[in-house]
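Annotated sample (chain length 327).
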Amino acid sequence: MGPIVPSFRFWMMEWLVKITGEKTLIISIGNGNPMIVTFQAMLEKLRNKRLVYVGDSLNRNQWVSLVCMLESSIHTHLKQVHFNGSLVTLKAIEYNATIDFYWAPLLVESNCDDAWHHRVKDRVLRVDSIEKHARFWEDADVLVFNSYLWWRLDLTVLWGSFESADAKYEQLGMLRTYELGLQTWADWLDTHVNRTKTRVFFVSMSPTHSRGEEWGKAEGENCYNETEPMPNAEYWGSESSPGMMRLVEAAIKKLNEKSGVKADLLNITQLSEYRKEAHPSIYRKHWDPLTKEQLENPSSYADCSHWCLPGVPDVWNHFLYVYLLYL
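Output written by the structure step:
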């Protein structure tokens, strides 16, 4: 069978749902040929397992995507959702499977670690401290990490504890700070991860579309009112840092070659770069009432970082499922 054209792909999806009565997804593999997967099959792969997404709101975006895809295939009386501080859990009782999200936007300890109150003016992190978070995911079978956007902010490194009067503060620059944070993350995995049980994934940076001038709009415009993907297959936005991506690739390579940890990069960056029309834009959660000035200029409050659902994070999870086939 050759590659499936879009019209046939959608027809096949509809046909499968009709004859199986199950929610279905189609993943393109190899030369474009399809692999048909039911969401029950995904749940079966997670039977007796714990999958934990760890990171920032983009990883929560991906967690919500997977929950939305799977929960409709779980009987209402056989699923539970629990909130415990930074940890939120979907429990599929019939499968003895848990799908968690844990809020740790910088992976290491910081003053932004409260899942509900993390909008602080001066962001400070302990780049060499991760145990505060890691104890919540230590027993996972599948770990899906991400951490990117928060490192592009103005961060201060704290050497010592937040309570110590002798603590020292230092500005090291984005790339060096990120490198140290990844080193702490990798060192923890090297020491604690069960190599016969746990699979580790790191999701590459999720692109933003805040600079419309990069695709032909006026300076100062962004994803607001966009309705089509990028027409340029070579597009790479200036807000996506190749230097940070190389640091992640190097950390994962070291984990695999020197530590024997099964770690993979879930590379979603380039395909997501094209989707300037796929953000919530002005249809976002507003934490504060909009001002008159904002209402007169909708692009000023458009969310061009997160993603609509259903949408782009669903594709990321399709990639993840292909890896899970080999658990």
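Annotation: The radius of gyration is 21 Å.
Annotation: Residues 61 and 261 are 26 Å apart (CA to CA).
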